[in-house]
Design a protein that fits this description.
Radius of gyration: 25 Å
Helix content: 25-40%
Largest sheet: 7 strands, mixed
CATH topology of the largest domain: Alkaline Phosphatase, subunit A
Shape: globular
CATH superfamily of the largest domain: Alkaline Phosphatase, subunit A
Distance between the termini: 88 Å
Structural class: alpha/beta
Length: about 500
């Protein structure tokens, strides 16, 4: 049956507005989806600022690639140089003293059951929040992740570093190694000709690429936690081959002149209970340093796989990329191996932030900043509100203008003994609290029970960046020490720790 012309015209007149409205609704929905900016949050473990764009011999072409699209933070500091306190702090935006978390064995939710976390905040604001690898600390018990923070079960978030032996691949004979030390179930140093995925980080990278493809059509907060360059030093052979052993034979392994004994530790994580840095054979020290750099290059290659996946999925232009480490590390300097000090090498970390709306890509900033600043920064970059209780400040002004002045000081701390149990009879004897200003690093060691200052350190960051001489109470540094001490007292009042 044919429709009369008059009715046909009436039907068209009615249909056009409906079609326009439908198109507008679809466009509005698409625009809303596009407005959310994704986050790729990449964290490394035990990685000091040792990469090519920081002036290091480390072979890191993929981090160079990321640097070209990022603002590089040359003075970013961890709040405590050991995994759990640092990760708990940066992922909640609260400092260790606020959380009451200063060791690796205390789950941050034990003293803070309802504290907000960075991934949970994004999850509550419409993001698919995913975890691949080590983001929160592994706490040595698999059930102690933080499932509420994520939209799906975590992948390889729990493991022991010492169990990272080659898996699932034919294992070639290991090249002869000089170091007889062990790390967990395996050797501290190992060089096998195996594929990347034979170890944890290769499998983390593979799964992260898979998850990225799974969530690419929705707003996502994808946290990827690599296990390297943390010991053991067992990167696949091709990464050892990027370096010459002779490049690692010379370094200053002396304690800083005039530094108090409490500033140091016995390096038991790396050297064992009976280890002695002073008597470590030079061949072993060079091999361990070589292995640390091989681990760095292995990590770098995995990061490259994530950047490739962003590009191939057309996500780069709408994704904020963050790369950080949880803290720094010593490989023999200051007669130390490992972390758990307040020296610059342990407190300072590499940091890149790349954001689609920031035009300062490829630039560096010397503004002082802290890992605790990341939570408010990502909120602001993605248009999210700020939860209550954050103790950092947004780095957006520095991202917009890398020449902008930052904080007057960045704060770190560490107890002595470096590792302890929370039982009342085994609590620390002292806490070292430290501030890095633009010109000095100043540290006070305080009695845990009374808050009394029992030792001081001051290092000239301008002319003694390697921290070779303690200048605390030196007359020529009195003004700088007074300024640093005033800022330190404001952040860390001299009161007993709980």
């Amino acid at each position: 049956m044919s429709i009369p012309p008059s009715l046909r015209l009436l039907w068209i007149a009615m249909a056009i507005p409906l079609a326009i409205q439908s198109t507008r609704s679809t466009s509005a929905a698409a625009a809303t989806a596009v407005q959310k900016t994704n986050v790729l949050f990449i964290m490394s473990d035990d990685y000091r600022a040792e990469l090519s764009t920081y002036g290091s011999q480390a072979v890191t072409p993929n981090l160079e690639r990321l640097a070209k699209k990022s603002v590089q933070f040359d003075r970013m500091y961890a709040q405590q140089a050991v995994c759990n306190p640092s990760r708990s702090s940066l992922l909640t935006g609260r400092r260790p003293d606020t959380l009451r978390v200063w060791n690796n064995s205390t789950h941050f939710r034990t003293p803070n059951p309802d504290v907000m976390t960075l991934p949970l905040w994004f999850k509550q604001h419409g993001y698919s929040s995913r975890c691949v690898g080590k983001i929160f600390h592994n706490w040595h018990t698999e059930e102690k992740g933080d499932a509420r923070s994520w939209s799906a079960p975590e992948f390889l978030f729990y493991a022991n570093h010492g169990d990272d032996a080659p898996q699932g691949q034919p294992i070639s004979e290991s090249a002869p190694m000089q170091t007889p030390l062990r790390y967990g179930a395996g050797p501290l140093c190992e060089m096998r000709d195996v594929p990347d995925e034979a170890y944890y980080d290769g499998r983390v990278a593979k799964e992260a690429v898979r998850v990225m493809e799974e969530v690419k059509d929705q707003p996502f907060f994808l946290a990827v936690g690599f296990w390297k360059p943390h010991a053991p030093f067992n990167a696949p052979k091709k990464y050892w081959d990027l370096y010459k052993r002779s490049d690692f034979e010379k370094f200053n392994g002396s304690r800083p002149e005039g530094a108090p004994d409490i500033a140091f530790h016995k390096s038991t994580e790396i050297l064992g209970k009976n280890g002695d840095a002073a008597s470590l054979p030079n061949a072993q020290a060079a091999e361990m340093r070589h292995g640390y750099f091989a681990n760095i290059s292995y990590l770098d290659a995995q990061i490259g796989k994530l950047l490739d996946a962003l590009d191939s999925n057309h996500l780069t232009e709408r994704t904020v990329i963050v790369f950080i480490s949880d803290h720094g590390y010593h490989v023999g300097e200051h007669a130390l191996w490992g972390k758990t000090s307040n020296f610059e090498l342990d407190a300072r970390v590499p940091a890149f932030i790349s954001a689609p709306t920031i035009s300062s890509a490829g630039r560096k900033t010397s503004a002082l900043s802290e890992l605790v600043d990341l939570f408010p920064t990502l909120n602001q970059l993605c248009g999210l509100p700020q939860p209550t209780g954050l103790e950092g400040q947004s780095l957006l002004p520095i991202l917009k203008n890398p020449n902008a002045s930052g904080k007057s000081g960045a704060f770190s701390q560490h107890p002595r003994p470096a590792y302890f149990d929370r039982e009342p009879s085994k609590m620390p004897q002292a806490m070292g609290v430290s501030i890095r200003t633009a010109s000095v690093r100043y540290t006070e060691w305080r009695d845990w029970k009374t808050g009394d200052v029992i030792a001081k350190e001051l290092y000239d960051a301008t002319d003694d960046s390697a921290e070779t001489k303690n200048r605390a109470d030196a007359p020529e540094f009195s003004a700088k020490q007074s300024e640093a001490a005033t800022l330190l007292l404001k952040q860390f009042p001299t009161t007993p720790h709980p």
